[in-house]
């Protein structure tokens, strides 16, 4: 996603439990690990709900309202309304589960707060967990600053009946939509465990949120004895961590280290910031310092929340863009911007093009045939033979972007798409990193070209495509690099993560 944009994502159904009444905050405070009773209306906090044994039922945001408490959580866990109602005796309150009647949209990106302010006609709530009410396109909404959606991320909640009005207003404001997978990536990169990431009998300190979600000075609450005892011991035997690897792995994969099984991956996403793929897993602390592997590939533990610019598979942290290193933006276009920055060790400045990055796909129609595209390139005044490619100009994973560009430019839908490396495009003047994928198990379909695009597909034998790279019939750099890298990979050579020169 471009740094100047916002994107909205349909978050689907979420747990939305409302406890209203004079005793609401005090009552909920007796069942959560965080200090809820001291919250002022409009403030919020993240907290665990635990059972009498101190074992986690759910991680939720608890938001203090004028009427009581709003509990927001990812769906799929135990029914919190039923859990609380079991202990409700004489307190003056009512507990209502309104999950089914609520539509949830998440606005993300560096421009999200400004875009939301324009839609609301007022400044949005401040992070973390600030919340309030307003209206978008005449529809009443509740808005929460949610840290698990990244900087500027806000949850917009409306009635199901008003969903169309709200999303229509977002679209009319020029804010594009992203697939729900983008929200899952943000959640995992933040390290926020969903119900699928909370194993049976997990204790709050094992889920790595204690600095924000547990108060060790508040009064009594359900499960407090176990939490306090574990705090006194000073350590846990297992802990929720981020697991990163260059190659794709899946939920259910075993994390191994030191010759032993350490844990199981519970959530996973494609994450350029992590250098490939990122998962959550509760692993044994005893073996987490060993050399790790997931599905036979090398892996590593990464600190969460994951922050900073997109990284490569070979480097854990990619250098920040020029605009984040004191550069001055001198021109902004639809897909890039020009930044003037001082040259290291020199008295002068240099203008560089800052690009959000891109994807390029090698579509194997068959093991010995590849689909290329003929593209009219205005910049060089010629039609070039290329691999399908496109800009990362929206909030989506690089894998999703590769699959989308493949379908749009060629019509093929990939049954399997694999990340195989990446490279810098013309790094002397251009900061664009291109992510390389191989697409297989293809199903043909119609193209979906953008207005003005002139693209024709051309399926050629694999051997001929390689010959074209050598004899000059293919002159496009990303296509030459992509085909030769994949050829080396197919020949059993180590492609690695290369940088262009």
Task: Compose a concise summary of this entry.
The chain has helices spanning 24-29, 80-85, 112-120, 163-172, 180-190, 210-213, 224-233, 398-410, 462-471, 477-490; strands spanning 7-10, 15-20, 44-50, 56-64, 68-73, 94-97, 102-108, 131-136, 139-145, 154-159, 177-178, 238-245, 254-257, 260-271, 276-284, 292-294, 297-302, 328-332, 337-342, 349-354, 358-366, 369-377, 382-386, 389-391, 413-425, 430-443, 455-461.
Structure in words:
By secondary structure, the protein is an alpha+beta fold. It has ten helices and 27 strands. It folds into four domains: 173 residues, 2-Layer Sandwich (Gyrase A, domain 2); 115 residues, Elongation Factor Tu (Ef-tu), domain 3 (Beta Barrel), CATH 2.40.30; 47 residues, no CATH class; 135 residues, Nucleoside Triphosphate Pyrophosphohydrolase (Alpha-Beta Complex), CATH 3.90.79. The strands form four sheets. Strands 18, 19, 20, 21, 22, 23, 24, 25, 26 and 27 form a ten-stranded mixed sheet that branches. The chain has a six-stranded mixed sheet with strand order 8-9-10-7-1-11, with helices on both faces. The protein has a six-stranded antiparallel beta barrel with strand order 12-15-14-13-16-17. A hairpin with a 6-residue loop joins strand 19 and strand 20. It is globular. The two termini are 25 Å apart. The C terminus is likely disordered.
């Amino acid at each position: 996603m471009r740094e100047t944009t916002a994107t909205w994502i349909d978050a689907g159904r979420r747990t939305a439990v409302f406890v209203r009444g004079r005793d609401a905050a005090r009552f909920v405070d007796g069942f959560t690990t965080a200090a809820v009773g001291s919250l002022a209306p409009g403030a919020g906090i993240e907290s665990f709900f635990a059972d009498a044994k101190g074992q986690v039922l759910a991680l939720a945001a608890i938001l203090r309202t004028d009427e009581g408490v709003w509990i927001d959580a990812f769906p799929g866990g135990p029914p919190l309304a039923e859990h609380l109602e079991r202990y409700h005796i004489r307190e003056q309150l009512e507990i209502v589960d309104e999950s089914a009647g609520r539509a949830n949209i998440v606005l993300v990106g560096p421009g999200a707060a400004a875009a939301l302010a324009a839609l609301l006609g007022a400044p949005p709530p401040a992070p973390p967990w600030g919340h309030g009410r307003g209206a978008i396109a005449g529809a009443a909404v509740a808005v929460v600053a949610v840290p698990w959606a990244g900087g500027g991320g806000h949850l917009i909640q409306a009635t199901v009946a008003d969903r169309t009005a709200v999303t229509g207003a977002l679209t009319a404001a020029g804010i594009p939509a992203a697939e729900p997978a983008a929200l899952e990536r943000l959640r995992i990169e933040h390290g926020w465990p969903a119900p699928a990431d909370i194993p049976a009998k997990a204790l709050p300190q094992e889920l790595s949120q204690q600095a924000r979600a547990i108060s060790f000075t508040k009064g009594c609450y359900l499960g407090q004895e176990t939490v306090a005892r574990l705090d006194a011991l000073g350590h846990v035997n297992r802990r929720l961590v981020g697991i990163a690897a260059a190659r794709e792995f899946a939920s259910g994969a075993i994390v191994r280290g030191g010759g032993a099984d350490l844990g199981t991956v519970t959530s996973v996403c494609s994450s350029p910031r992590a250098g490939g793929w990122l998962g959550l897993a509760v692993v044994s602390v005893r073996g987490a310092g060993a050399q790790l592997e997931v599905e036979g590939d090398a892996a590593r533990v990464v600190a969460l929340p994951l922050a900073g610019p997109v990284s490569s598979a070979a480097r854990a942290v990619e250098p920040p863009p020029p605009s984040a290193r004191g550069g001055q933006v001198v021109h902004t276009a639809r897909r890039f911007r020009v930044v003037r920055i001082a040259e290291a060790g020199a008295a002068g400045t240099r203008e560089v093009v800052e690009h959000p990055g891109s994807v390029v796909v090698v579509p194997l129609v068959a093991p010995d045939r590849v689909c290329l595209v003929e593209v009219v390139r205005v910049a060089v005044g010629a039609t070039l033979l290329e691999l399908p490619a496109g800009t990362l100009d929206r909030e989506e994973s690089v894998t999703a972007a590769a699959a989308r560009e493949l379908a749009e430019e060629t019509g093929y839908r990939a049954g399997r798409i694999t990340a195989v490396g990446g490279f810098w495009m013309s790094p002397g003047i251009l900061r664009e990193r291109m992510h390389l994928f191989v697409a297989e198990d293809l199903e043909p379909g119609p193209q979906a070209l953008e207005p003005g695009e002139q693209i024709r597909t051309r399926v050629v034998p694999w051997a001929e495509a390689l010959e074209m790279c050598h004899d000059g019939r293919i002159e496009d750099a990303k296509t030459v690099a992509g085909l030769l890298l994949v050829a080396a990979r197919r020949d059993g050579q180590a492609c690695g993560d290369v940088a262009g020169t």
